[in-house]
Every structure is written in C-alpha cells, then in structure tokens.
Amino acid sequence: MPEQINILFHGIGTPQRELEPGEDQYWISEAAFEAILDEVAGWPDVRLSFDDSNTSDVEIALPALLERGLTAEFFVLAGRLDLPGSLGADDLRTLIKNGMPVANHGMWHHPWRGMDDATTRAELAEARDRISSVIGRPVTRAACPLGRYDRKTLASLRRLGYTTVFTSDRRPATPGRWLQPRFSVYRDDTPESVRAAVERSRSLRPRLRNAAAGVVKRWR
User: Residue 12, SS3?
Assistant: First the structure.
C-alpha cells in the first residue's frame, strides 16, 4: 500500500509571543529548520505543514519554501489573527498569493477532545468561517490542536464537511485518507533524528502500537 509522510513544523527562531506551557519543545532554530527542510524535501511523497499561526510562518518558513520551490499547508488559529507574534489577515493572504494553502487549526488552540457544543461550534465552524472570510475561499481541511481528538469531534468534522483532518499520530499516512497522521518536529531534532523517527515507525511493533493508539482515539 502506498504511503505518504506528513512532516509538521511549529515555531522557528525566537518566539514573538508568550508560549503555552510545554510549547517550547516544538520551537526549532532557523538553522535546524533549514537543515530538516532540505532533508525531507528529497523524500518521495512527503507533505509539509505548519501549525499555530506563528509569525515565523511568513518571516522564515515562507521564504525558505519559495527558495526551494516547495509548498506547505498552514493551519491557523482564527482567534489569534493579528495578535502580537501571530499571523494577521494580510499574512494569510500573502500565503495564499504564494501558493500556500491555509486551513483551520481552531479558534484558541483548545484541545479537540471532550468539547461541549458551544466550544465545538467555535473551534470547528466559527473559526473556519473567520479564516474563510479572510482568504476569500472555502476552508475544508483542519488539524487537531495538540493532536487531541475523539469520536464526537471526528463526527462533527465530518458533519461540517471537512474533506481532510490532520493529527499528530507519528506514523505514515495513506494518500487520500480522510484522517492524516503527521510527524511533529521537536526542538532537538536533526535531519538524522527525523529520518530515524520515520524509519522506526515503519517497523512492525511501532506500526501496530501506533495503529492501536489511533483506534482508541477514534472510538473513545
């Protein structure tokens, strides 16, 4: 069965906003970002994405992608639009103008697990509509904040017409599947460690363990 490797970046360089507890583990240096980007760009059937609406998306990531002729998808937080250190409306339009898809990462980086109806509406529908109004086109793809989701969330995403949903489940994806796992890049990662993480995930024991964890998340 063909596989696709989805690589997920977060912040690059020095944060321009106050980070959430534990968020610093997902921030990497500009040098590390470029080295990892050069590594994964040569892989067959790799897809790149960015979460969390950091200004480094346009200040550092976008020029690096364009220089290499690469495309990435940017999952943004509607509630952080135009806040210090976060992407603004003009930034989203800049990404679109440069051929970079923009999609939904929620309103306030709220975990998409155990949400009540009001939170579900804000995170999945209102956030999507706000992003869509900024970029002037429909938003049909989403990424789960903090990699958390449950059966109710997935049902809501399907009901709202999302065509693809991305997680952080660290295993290869099947092209075209509605639910797409991704490999997050961490603070201390190198090209070698990212490559090793992907290779480990292909062996039988991690593959079975990751598949079982995904089933639990989908059905809890």
Answer: strand
Chain-centroid distance, C-alpha 31:
21
Confidence tier at 3 by pLDDT (50, 70, 90): very high
Task: Assess whether pLDDT exceeds 90 at residue 1.
Answer: no
Q: Residue 5: exposed, middle, or buried by beta-carbon count in 10 A (0-12, 13-18, 19+)?
A: buried
Extended beta strands in the chain, E state: 5-9, 46-51, 72-76, 102-104, 141-143, 164-166, 179-180, 183-184
Residue 134 CA to residue 90 CA, distance in Å, equals 8
The token pair that represents 136 in the structure block: 């002037």
Contact 164, 180 (CB under 8 A): yes
Give the span between the Cα atoms of 136 and 134, in whole angstroms.
Answer: 6
DSSP label of 24: G
Average pLDDT over residues 141-152: 96
* Cα–Cα distance for residue pair 184/147, rounded to 1 Å: 10
pLDDT digit string, tens, across residues 89-119: 999 999 999 999 999 999 999 999 999 999 9
SS3 67: helix
pLDDT above 90 covers what percent of the chain?
A: 90
Q: Reduce the DSSP state of residue 220 to 3 states and report it.
A: coil
Burial call 193-216: b when 16+ CB within 10 Å, e when fewer: ebeebbeebeeeeeeeebeeeeee
